[in-house]
């Protein structure tokens, strides 16, 4: 249990790799402890699900448009046939202000494609303050590896 007490090894591996694939026990708890340790050393953290992410780079870092769900109502000619586009702020927009390091923690990362994971890794390499943890599934014990190694396998 010393790993969960300090989180030092996790932090060092995350800073070295930039993006980690995490396999956590299904009963939970370990990820919130690690996130709390990262916040304690100065990281600004964002926890979100990978489901419904769409284009990860646009969703996380750019002003982008979304369409509301179709609820079966008739259009009265106010918008396009597929609905009106609403502009949405990037999810990491507020975290990018300042100089503190940023931690993006993605739950259910197993739904992301190889290309989406590769895009996230390349963005972590371009933006050195951004660190990424992607939960890739369950395991008997808490373990992690660089996300690049997972993609190469």
From TrEMBL:
One of its GO terms (molecular function) is quinone binding. NDH-1 shuttles electrons from an unknown electron donor, via FMN and iron-sulfur (Fe-S) centers, to quinones in the respiratory and/or the photosynthetic chain. The immediate electron acceptor for the enzyme in this species is believed to be plastoquinone. Couples the redox reaction to proton translocation, and thus conserves the redox energy in a proton gradient. Cyanobacterial NDH-1 also plays a role in inorganic carbon-concentration. It holds the Pfam family NdhN. Its EC number is 7.1.1.-. Keywords: Membrane, NAD, NADP, Plastoquinone, Quinone, Thylakoid, Translocase, Transport. NDH-1 can be composed of about 15 different subunits; different subcomplexes with different compositions have been identified which probably have different functions. It catalyses: a plastoquinone + NADPH + (n+1) H(+)(in) = a plastoquinol + NADP(+) + n H(+)(out); a plastoquinone + NADH + (n+1) H(+)(in) = a plastoquinol + NAD(+) + n H(+)(out). This is NAD(P)H-quinone oxidoreductase subunit N. GO terms for cellular component: plasma membrane-derived thylakoid membrane. It is found in: Cellular thylakoid membrane.
């Amino acid at each position: 249990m010393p790993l969960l007490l300090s989180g030092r090894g996790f932090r060092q591996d995350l800073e070295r790799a930039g993006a980690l694939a995490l396999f956590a026990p299904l009963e939970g708890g370990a990820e919130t402890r690690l996130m709390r340790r990262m916040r304690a050393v100065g990281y600004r953290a964002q926890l979100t699900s990978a489901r419904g992410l769409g284009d990860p780079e646009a969703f996380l870092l750019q002003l982008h448009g979304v369409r509301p769900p179709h609820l079966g109502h008739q259009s009265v000619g106010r918008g396009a046939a597929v609905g009106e586009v609403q502009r949405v702020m990037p999810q990491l927009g507020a975290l990018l202000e300042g100089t503190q390091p940023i931690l993006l923690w993605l739950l259910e990362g197993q739904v992301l494609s190889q290309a989406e994971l590769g895009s996230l890794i390349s963005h972590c390499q371009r933006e050195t303050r951004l660190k990424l943890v992607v939960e890739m599934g369950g395991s008997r014990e808490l373990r992690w590896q660089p996300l690049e190694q997972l993609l190469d396998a």
